[in-house]
Amino acid sequence: MNDTERRPRPRPSGPIRHGRQHTSSPVAAVVKWLAVAAAVALVSVGAVTAYAVTSVAQQFSANAVDISNGEDAPAPPPLLGAFEGGFNMLIIGTDNDPNQGEDFGERDATLNDVNILLHVSADHSNAVVVSFPRDLVMAHPECTDPATGEVFDAMSAQPLNDAFARGGLACVATTITDLTGVPIQYAAATSFNGVIEMTNAVGGVPVCLVEPIVDTDSGLDLPAGTSTIEGQMALSFLRNRHGVGDGSDLARIASQQQYLASLIRTMKSSNTLTDVTKLYGLAQAASQNILPSQSLASVDAMVSLALTLKDIDLSKIVFAQYPVGSSSDYPGKVVPLQSTADELFAKVLNDEPFTLGADSTGTGSTIVEDPANPTAEAPVEEAPVEEAPVEPADPGAEAPVDPEAPVDPSTEVPTTEVPTAPEVIEGVKGQTADQQTCANPFSG
């Protein structure tokens, strides 16, 4: 029986009696009106939420671009459930986006200044986040701009951040795939304004500085220790280059990795993925500031991919810089360190976990014990004192076991299989999501 059905009342056998009508007390009247108001509010909120989510979804899908390059589109993700299997997602940050205005200067073209590839393993046990330097000189494939149909010829050696101007998000995805061999199913681009709004939506992100940094170029002005940043200061921290490490783009990548690791810790600790208000705030900020691929053009898809990170241990989320070296042919730029890059992406393609070598933190980044006091020395652990083995004094002690003697299966002690530690890839800079790192001021 559903809620709208009513059972017929039994007909009384005796004479009909009229009951006395009770007068409602003031308290009962208030409770009744509160109940009515609550019911109206719930219906109103539900309607507003449904409209808002529909509006966000429509706005998001309207801006989506095709990055498939003729390949089959990935299967749609489940409704508000974790994505099944592994996936690769490209995230880029653009400079001189038409929506950012003139607040951050002007350029001749929109550039893909931040380039990040996220890989989640098929069993969701580990993830790799690879950052590519914008000044990485590399081969570029032929690209067709999906908006205009214009075809751009392949190039043998140009900086990575030229890719967006040659065909938008689709061209950047194709360029990264050609470089790494990793197929990209999902992609998203955001501008400076998008970074500000997304950071505000999660309530700010804690970052750490070893010493105060004041950089007039980016606008960064933060004290030593930990500060929770949002809005313009968050963007200044991510854009800052000349105030950190050696003033290079590689030092800026280390700061961005510190920020992203802290963002993941913040979202996990604050249960953002289960907070409806924060989820909607993130979705709204994303719809207004993110250019998605068609495969990512729904709120369901974004939530589904995000949920895959929910249960991955922080120590199993590795942030890595694409391995690079220098070349006299390209002063001020970097070139691929191919052998190390091949080793890194072989692990990614085969879904094999790995760890980074000792002293692998990026340029301008330091691992600290206490982010609130980054200059404090880590406590020195005293080595345990080994006691000399005591020889048995009992002359009747059992004789040593003859290795040739047959073994009684009932007396065998089962051996515990020790899991194989992930292989270390030397020469790759980065950190894991559980490591607390702080930015060092410019040392040049």
Task: Please provide a written account of the structure.
This protein is α+β, with helices and mostly antiparallel strands. It has one domain (63-371, 426-439): LCP protein (Aminopeptidase, 3-Layer(aba) Sandwich). The chain is 28% helix and 19% strand. It contains eight helices and 21 strands. The protein has helices at 26-62, 168-180, 192-201, 231-239, 249-269, 276-289, 299-307, 338-349; strands at 87-95, 111-120, 127-132, 137-140, 143-144, 151-152, 155-159, 186-190, 205-209, 213-215, 220-222, 225-229, 290-292, 317-321, 324-325, 335-336, 354-356, 365-367, 423-425, 430-432, 437-439. It has a seven-stranded mixed β-sheet with strand order 13-8-1-2-3-14-20, with helices on both faces. Strands 4-7 form a two-stranded antiparallel sheet. A hairpin with a 6-residue loop joins strand 5 and strand 6 (151-152). It is globular, with a radius of gyration of 30 Å.
How many domains is the backbone divided into?
Answer: 1
Name given to the CATH homologous superfamily: LCP protein
Q: What structural class do helix, strand and pairing data support?
A: alpha+beta
Regions with pLDDT < 50 over 5+ consecutive residues? 3-7, 12-24, 26-53
What is the CATH architecture assignment? Answer: 3-Layer(aba) Sandwich
Give the mean pLDDT.
Answer: 79
Number of helices: 8
| Top CATH class | Alpha Beta
The third-level CATH topology is Aminopeptidase
Region (Disordered): 1-23, 355-444
Protein name: LCP family protein
Family: Belongs to the LytR/CpsA/Psr (LCP) family.
Domain Cell envelope-related transcriptional attenuator: 112-269
